[in-house]
């Protein structure tokens, strides 16, 4: 069950590359016109693609986060649309490789471009876009900036079709979505990674899509509240899941062990920053040394740690 | 020119700027390898802010420090140091500008006659690859400019609020920290005191286009701030939307032990915030 790659890759690949089932691989999927995203069926009817731990670029098509879908008796729900419309389309191709049921919901776990830039690919599917009640507001204040700033890293051609498409079904607290004999529990969280984090729990398989509340391998990024994130890890870990799809990191990951690496990073970061604040060290200096002991444990540490430290400093100095 | 009119003026410019930025940013990025690009934006901006007045190089009268890359686009720390020059006299005002921001004038600071401010640190929003510049006006009326180039942050960092509900819920709350001069051998009543003033405020930019409604989100920011001790002005600020959320000022000045420090602030919605802190000689 934890080693499902071959089975599900076969399943996805079969639709398009029936002539070379035995040799199907990620590399082949990439060279074969990149039609479908190579997804893993790690539980019956639960599929996920493992994002590449890099910054979004034209080269990786923005495919840096984990995305997935769940197939019920009547319909399919998609969790995040990916970092480009091209990725969103490839995800739809993966779905169509295993199911012809309608895509009823496109769930956005939060506002970040790597999770929502593929939304436009789903416009013609009739899927209802679902998100945290604060997601529309967050997209209103950032969408324009995201569209401008990612032009450089993703390139004009990948950006051409990207549109900011906010959710129309909003989640406050907890709500259940039905896919036909398959219920998903959606939970809206208080500010943590962002102020619009949403998790998706499949009751049947006990699989949890954490969105970016869980990072493994890829350094977590701070765009909400460090304190809120640390506090809610306690609630998060009580979710009765067997396996999780983190926002970034191995698919699937063991639950709740998946939360341990980021918890250690947050504690280190908070401790270092609190000490600097107490000692009167200015922000610009404090962020250069904070959490450096965590450097060997993560990818993209240099890309994101100083930024996390900056956000943490601005938050924690109000304590 | 007051900052309000600068912003109003720039609001018109900004619509044009926003459209231009889409093409201008990648160009600036491309041109920028080891060297920094020419100050083309400043050339056209200068007249709007200072008219025909000559702007000279600072020659150490004012210096600016900022990270080379804006790690968090919403919180870019900026450090200014001032040196009084015998010929030009003391610094009366400092204008802080982020060339490529939709409303480039971040703030205008005025300093009290005997305030003796030698250092000022704050945090800015930086939207794109941009020069950040500080222009000091000295008593002789001359303008002295220093600048530094800041690269925009990578990834999904945006110059927007991280926790919007919290920003509104704690609006107007203030905090003042006094940093004791603890250097060994320093006099306990040393004249220069370092302080940090923090104000909770979303300091919302009015220039973010809501992609859904196509309207601009209304601006809501601190436009006026005064810090005084007793009845003497330490510094005042006319602020704009490029100052980060929860405006934060760390500065060094000549404190008079025993006199209260008073802060008054007003935002664009007409809300007024004020607070007073006794400044004990023991905290100096």
Automatic annotation (TrEMBL), chain A:
Domain Metallo-beta-lactamase: from-to ranges: 64-248
GO process annotations (BP): antibiotic catabolic process
One Pfam match: Lactamase_B
Keyword Signal found: yes
Signal peptide coordinates: 1-29
MF GO annotations: hydrolase activity
Protein keywords: Hydrolase, Signal
Lineage: superkingdom: Bacteria
Family label: Belongs to the metallo-beta-lactamase superfamily. Class-B beta-lactamase family.
Official protein name in the record: MBL fold metallo-hydrolase
Automatic annotation (TrEMBL), chain B:
Pfam families associated with the record: SoxY, SoxZ
Signal peptide: 1-28
Keyword Kinase tagged: no
Keywords (A to Z) from UniProt: Signal
Residue ranges constituting the Sulphur oxidation protein SoxZ domain according to the UniProt record: 191-276
Superkingdom, taxonomy of origin: Bacteria
Domain Ig-like SoxY: 48-156
Protein name: Quinoprotein dehydrogenase-associated SoxYZ-like carrier
Classification lineage: Bacteria, Pseudomonadati, Pseudomonadota, Alphaproteobacteria, Hyphomicrobiales
């Amino acid at each position: 069950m934890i080693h499902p790659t071959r089975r599900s890759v076969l399943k996805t690949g079969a639709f398009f590359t029936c002539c070379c089932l035995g040799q199907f691989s990620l590399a082949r999927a990439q060279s074969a016109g990149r039609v479908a995203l190579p997804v893993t069926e790690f539980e019956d009817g639960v599929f996920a693609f493992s994002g590449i731990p890099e910054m979004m670029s034209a080269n990786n098509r923005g495919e840096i986060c984990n995305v997935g879908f769940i197939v019920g008796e009547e319909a399919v729900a998609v969790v995040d649309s990916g970092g480009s419309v091209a990725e969103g389309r490839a995800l739809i191709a993966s779905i169509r490789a295993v199911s012809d049921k309608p895509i009823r919901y496109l769930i956005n776990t939060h506002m970040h471009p790597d999770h929502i830039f593929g939304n436009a690919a789903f416009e013609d599917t009739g899927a209802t876009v679902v998100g945290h009640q604060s997601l529309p507001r967050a997209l209103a204040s950032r969408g324009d900036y995201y569209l401008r700033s990612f032009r450089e890293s993703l390139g004009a051609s990948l950006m051409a079709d990207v549109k900011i498409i906010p959710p129309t079904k909003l989640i406050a607290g907890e709500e259940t979505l039905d896919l036909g004999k398959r219920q998903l529990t959606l939970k809206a969280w208080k500010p943590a990674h962002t102020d619009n984090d949403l998790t998706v729990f499949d009751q049947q398989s006990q699989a949890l899509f954490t969105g970016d509340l869980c990072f493994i391998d890829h350094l977590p990024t701070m765009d909400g509240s460090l304190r809120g994130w640390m506090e809610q890890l306690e609630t998060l870990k009580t979710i009765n899941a067997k396996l999780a799809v983190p926002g970034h990191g191995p698919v699937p990951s063991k639950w709740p062990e998946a939360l341990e690496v980021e918890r250690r990073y947050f504690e280190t970061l908070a401790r270092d920053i609190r000490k600097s604040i107490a000692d009167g060290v200015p922000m610009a200096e404090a962020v250069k040394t904070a959490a450096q002991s965590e450097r060997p444990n993560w990818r993209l540490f240099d890309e994101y740690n100083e930024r996390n430290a900056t956000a943490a400093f601005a938050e924690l100095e109000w304590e | 020119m007051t900052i309000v009119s600068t912003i109003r003026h720039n609001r018109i410019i900004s619509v044009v700027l926003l459209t231009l930025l889409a093409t201008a940013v990648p160009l600036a990025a491309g041109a920028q390898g080891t060297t920094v690009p020419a100050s083309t934006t400043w050339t056209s901006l200068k007249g709007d802010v200072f008219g025909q007045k000559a702007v000279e190089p600072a020659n150490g009268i004012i210096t600016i420090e900022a990270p080379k890359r804006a790690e968090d686009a919403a919180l870019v720390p900026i450090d200014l140091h001032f040196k009084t020059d015998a010929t030009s006299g003391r610094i009366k005002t400092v204008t802080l500008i982020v060339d490529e921001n939709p409303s480039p004038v971040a703030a205008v600071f005025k300093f009290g006659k005997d305030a003796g401010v030698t250092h000022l640190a704050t945090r800015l929003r930086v939207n794109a690859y941009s020069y950040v510049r500080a222009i000091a006006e000295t008593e002789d009326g001359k303008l002295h400019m220093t600048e530094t180039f800041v690269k925009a942050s990578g990834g999904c960092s945006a110059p927007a609020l991280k926790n919007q509900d919290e920003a509104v819920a704690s609006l107007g709350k203030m905090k003042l920290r006094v940093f004791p001069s603890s250097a060994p051998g320093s006099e306990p009543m040393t004249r220069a005191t370092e302080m940090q003033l923090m104000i909770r405020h979303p300091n919302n930019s009015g220039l973010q286009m809501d992609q859904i409604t196509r309207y601009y989100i209304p601006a809501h920011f601190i436009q006026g701030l005064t810090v005084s001790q007793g009845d003497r002005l330490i510094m005042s600020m006319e602020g704009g939307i490029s100052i980060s959320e929860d405006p934060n000022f760390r500065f060094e000045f000549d404190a008079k032990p025993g006199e209260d420090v008073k802060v008054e602030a007003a935002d664009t919605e007409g809300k007024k915030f004020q607070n007073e802190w006794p400044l004990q000689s023991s905290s100096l």
